[in-house]
User: Fold this.
Amino acid sequence: MSSLKRRAFLKSAIAASLFPFSPDVGAAETGGLDFGRPEPFTFQGLVDRARLLSTKPYVPPYRPAPDIVAKIDYDVHGKIRFKPDRALFVNGPGPYPVMFFHLGQWFRSSVKMHAVAKGAAREIFYSPDDFDMPADSIARKLPRDSGFAGFRFHEARRRADWKTQDWLAFLGASYFRAIGDLGQYGISARGIAVNTSAAGTTEEFPEFTEFYIEPAPSEGQPAMVYALLSGPSITGAYRFACHRGKGVTQEVEANLFVRNSIAQLGIAPLTSMFWFAEYDAGFRADWRPEIHDSDGLALWTGTGERIWRPLHDPLRTVTSSFVDRTPKGFGLLQRDRTFDHYLDGVRYERRPSLWVEPLGDWGAGAVKLVEIPTDDEIHDNIVAFWEPAEPAKPGTSMRTSYRLYWQADEPFPADNVAHVYSTRIGRGGKPGTARPKGVTKFVVEFGGKPLDALPSDGKPIANITASRGEVSYVFVEPVPDSKHWRAQFDLALAGTEPAEIRMFLRSGDRTLTETWLCQFEPRPT
Assistant:
């Protein structure tokens, strides 16, 4: 599976600024960006184009001067900056300026950009004059029709930091990302995922080939982004209503048209990075205690169950399937917010969580979690998405809607069950005795209102099941100097086949916590 270079993306988000769009004013009169002539635009028209496109053979997007673009590496790209006086919407309409990304080694496809106003769209043409770059930059050798790689919304112009702080960026294939309410980028989303882990297939990365950007009327109202998607097996028309408030919230409507059979179609895909946490750090793998953008998959099932699945860096690519009907939501979350647990200046403790709220009835399907081995933090090796039960056959179409919440925490916390706060794994057995081989100890810490309200003599009971192996030495105790409780148990396993473990705390018939799931993969000895 190919992956985005996370640090390259974050550090390539360089400040720039933009220019006021008016469909009645030409570029020569404004001294700003170079626009084409106004053309009528509606979202339904874009949907119709995507439908028609699906009936035609796939044509890859324009990739200008590949030999030159391949040399615009991380260092070269970092020295190319959009000029402030070329900013879109810098003087209105709307509060949020939009800035554009230059092509580079990791972003080679030319993406058409349009500004929308009063039912008309005008294409924004690339010019090397839009960017500050060194006199000897290889990028100066690109043809004038090269186009842009992507774009980003910046903070409202009233803010002193608007030139240096963006809050939403679309860049690379169908990837996009936003900051949460802690002001950091981290996890990404995608328009669609195709054959991410389906056996006997190669993953496809459909691309947003055209964007249409409509300014927000005012702060508190959404900016609108419309996108045309094309790939070998699917096309689509997307509408994003993008709200800047507590973090970033997006309402997404996707109209999809299948060109060729797809073995695994991923709706609302999320992409993140997990290398290690407190429960699976390798010996001297790195000087930092933990490295991850997300530490778990949270599920709110159609039946109302709350589930927490800690992430892992597996020995081989692993796909987990959580079958459901009409899910209430799912997300990749960063729950650990303590700096001392990371000790890194890139501030992993501030990375946003991303939650998907289905709008309407999604029917039958499954949330899929794909975990890919990694040996560094530069790779996004975690993918989560919804796979409909209905197969994606040529000629079929679907319309789906959902809401994305880029925030520090999940937007719909469950007050009726406590959350998992940490997972720890180590050698089994009792301290001070000979440690048995093939036995692993699990310690899971829970905290929340249902546990806070327990009477002093109301000790919870751990309900534990495992797909294989023998569970023993089960013990539940309060965590000193806190209101948390932790459950620990040993699991004896033979061989190296994974075991699926499930646990929650209860008091009588009352469930006190969300369900902790773990796919434990014994390491070869």
